[in-house]
Amino acid sequence: MKNSFDEREAKEFVKRYSSLPEVLAIRLYTSRLIGKDPALVLHGGGNTSAKLKTKDILGEEHDVLYVKGSGANLATLEPEGMTGLELQELQKLRSLQDLPDEEMENQLRIHKIDFRSPDPSVEALLHAFLPHRYVDHTHAENILILSNQKRGKEFLEEALGPGIGILPYRHSGFPLARAVIELYEDNPHLKAIVLMNHGIFTFAEEADLSYGKMIEYVGRAGAFIQKKIEGKALFTPGASEIVSGNISPAHILLTAARVTSTIRGLCAHEDSGRRLRRFYTELRANPEMIQISLSREAAHLCHSGVLTPDHISWTKNQALYIESVPEEDESLKRRLQELIDLYRSDYDRYFETHTATHETQLERLDPYPRVFLVAGLGLIALGLTRRAARIAADIAERTFQAKLRSQALGEYLPID
Ligand code: ZN
Questions:
Q1: Using CA atoms, how far apart are residues 219 and 128, in angstroms rounded to an integer?
Q2: From ligand 1's centre to the CA of 330, what distance in Å?
Q3: Domain 241-409: which topology?
Q4: How much distance in Å is there from the Cα of 26 to the middle of ligand 1?
Q5: Where are the domains of the chain?
Q6: Most buried residue, 73, 89, 210, 234, by most Cβ within 10 Å?
Q7: Which pLDDT value is given to residue 45?
C-alpha cells in the first residue's frame, strides 16, 4: 500500500478551497486519496469526517461534524458532498438505551446545519461519538479477507499487531456506534478499530495521521495475506479446452450474446408502479473470470455471500451459477428460466424470514439476481442503469478474487 499524502498537494487544496476552513479542505484532500484507491474503497463504500468549530448566522460558535453524505463519492468529494451536523446534539444521543434506525435517521436530518445537504451516512453517529478531529472508514478488501474468516480475529491480531480493537459484526446504526465508543473509552490507546465482516476505522487529530494509519493497517493485512497464500493455487482449474484457448473468441462472443439476451428477457419485469423494467448487462469475459467460472470452486463462490453488507445493494447477497450453456436456444432458455425462478423464490423466502420479526414495514426489492457466473464465459452483471450494471460487475469481480484468497488462507466465513 502506498501512502500518497503529499504536503505540497495538501497545501494546493487549502489554497483551492480557500473559502473553506482549512480542516475541511484537508479533509477533502485525504478523502479523495482514500476514494481513489480501489484496494480501499469501491464505488461509494466508506466514509470520512472532520470536526470543527463554525459560526452560525448569529455569530455564535458551534461544534460541527462534517461527514460524507450518502450518494457522494470519496474519490471526487466536493464540499457539497459533506453534511454538517450539530455535533453536541448528536453526542447527547449516546445516553439513550436504544435508538431505532428510523428515529436515528430523523435525528440526523433534524440536526443538519444546512437543510440542502444530503442525508449523512448511517455511520454518522459513530463519527460523532469518537472524539478525534479526523475519522476515516473504509471497507478495504484486505481487511475483509481477514475478517470474513473462521479464524478471523486471530489472523487480524497477528497481521495488524497490538493497539487494534476488534468488534464482532453488528448492524450499522446506533448499537454499533455505541459499541465502538465504549470499546475506545475502555482502551484509549487504540489506533484503529476493525468491525468484523464490515471494515476498518482509523482516527487522529491530524488528517495525514488518520489516513496514514489506514494505509499502514490495510497494507499490513495485505502483506500478511500475501505471505500466507504465497505459492498456493487459488482455485482448481476446470475444462481445459476452453482454458487453453481452443475455443475461438468469436464463439465466446456469440455465446455471450445468446446468454445475455436470454437473461435480459427472462429478468424483464414490471415494478410496483407497473412500469416495465429491463436490466442493462455488463460482461466480464477476461481470462481470469473465464478460468474462475470453470473452476471447481465456482458454485461455492456464487453462494457464499458478500464481503461486506454494503455490497448487497449492488450485487445482492448471492450470485447465480450457470454450470453450462446449452447449444440449443430453447434448452438455454428453459435452463435459465429454472435457475432464475429458483433464485426468485429463494429471495422471496429470505425476505419473508428476515422481515417477519421486524417492527416496521420494509421495502421488498425485485427478486432478480444481479450477478451471474457462467461456466466458460465469465461474469455477467445486471443493473437497472448502465452504471449500476458496471458497479455490480466491478464489485463482483473483485469479490470473487478476494474470496479465493480468503479460501486459500483458511475458511471464508461471511455473516449469515
Ligand atoms: Zn461501513
A1: 27
A2: 44
A3: L-fuculose-1-phosphate Aldolase (3.40.225)
A4: 22
A5: 7-227, 241-409
A6: 210
A7: 81
**Spacing, Cα 198 to ligand 1 middle (Å):** 6
Report CA(231)–ligand 1 centroid distance (Å): 32
Q: How many whole angstroms separate alpha carbon 40 and alpha carbon 397?
A: 15
Sign of CA dihedral 13, 19, 21, 27: negative
Rounded to the nearest whole angstrom, what is the distance from the C-alpha of residue 333 to the centroid of ligand 1?
A: 39
More confident residue, 194 or 354: 194
Which residues are near ligand 1, the ion (C-beta closer than 5 Å)? 199
Q: How confident is the model at residue 239 (pLDDT cuts 50, 70, 90)?
A: low
pLDDT in tens, 291-316: 999 999 999 999 999 999 889 999 99
DSSP 130: S
CATH for the 7-227 domain, from 3.40.1010.20, 3.40.225.10, 3.90.420.10, 3.40.50.2300: 3.40.225.10
User: What is the whole-number distance in angstroms between the Cα of residue 126 and the centre of ligand 1?
Assistant: 10
The model's pLDDT over 39-67, given as tens digits with 9 standing for 90+, comes to 999 887 899 999 999 999 999 999 999 99
pLDDT for the residue 172: 87
* Gap from CA of 314 to ligand 1 centroid (Å): 15
Q: Pairing relation of β-strands 192-195 and 164-167?
A: parallel
pLDDT mean over 223-244: 82
402 C-alpha to ligand 1 centroid (Å): 18
Q: Ligand 1 centroid vs 303 CA: distance in angstroms? A: 22
Sequence-distant (6+) residues with CB within 8 A of 308 are: 45, 139, 144, 197, 198, 199
What are the cell numbers at 95?
445516553
